[in-house]
Design a protein that fits this description.
Elements (H helix, E strand, L loop, with lengths): L1 E6 L10 H8 L4 H16 L4 H13 L6 E4 L3 H8 L6 E7 L6 E2 H7 L14 E4 L7 E8 L13
Antiparallel strand pairs: 1-3, 2-5, 3-6, 4-5
Helix pairs in contact: 1-2, 2-3
Length: about 160
């Protein structure tokens, strides 16, 4: 399966989830950051109860420093919107991995009879746990700087 990740910074082939990046920027060791991220991942993959799962899903999607996943989407246009956020240059990673290795937020919500999260449902977010490593592979990295709009007026009052 091919997915896309849009971001503001170029990380090369060492992509980590937001909580690991956050902790590394704040002086934590990689081992400390991985331990904390693994704890958050466990809340999502082996939750104690459904309330905890729903809360962890919301946290992972709403607050980057609580996400143990690299956020991806099957839609390049969505990744592009994240890469170009705030009107500055960004990057789009094209990543390949097996369908069953992604954490499918919408599917987890549906399986647990949770209502779709209206803020994020449209993204069809697929998470890569903790860091980009096998079975996931970067196929391409693009630097993009703008979207050129081509418009034709079809109605004007």
């Amino acid at each position: 399966m091919i997915v896309y990740h849009g971001c503001k910074s170029l990380y090369g082939d060492k992509l980590y989830c937001p909580i690991i990046n956050y902790d590394l920027r704040n002086g934590k060791s990689i081992d400390q950051a991985l331990f904390k991220a693994q704890t958050l991942l466990d809340d999502l993959t082996a939750p104690i109860d459904k309330f905890m799962l729903q809360s962890a899903l919301d946290d992972a999607q709403k607050t980057s420093f609580k996400s143990p996943f690299i956020s991806t989407t099957p839609y390049r246009s969505i990744a592009r919107s994240f890469a170009l956020n705030r009107g500055t240059t960004g990057f789009i990673y094209t990543i390949e991995g097996p369908d069953d290795s992604f954490f499918d937020f919408n599917n987890v919500r549906a399986k647990n009879n949770f209502p779709p999260h209206k803020t994020f449902e449209w993204m069809n977010e697929l998470g890569i746990p903790l860091e980009l490593k096998l079975p996931f592979e970067i196929i391409q990295i693009e630097e993009i700087s703008e979207i050129i709009e081509i418009a034709q007026v079809v109605y004007k009052k």
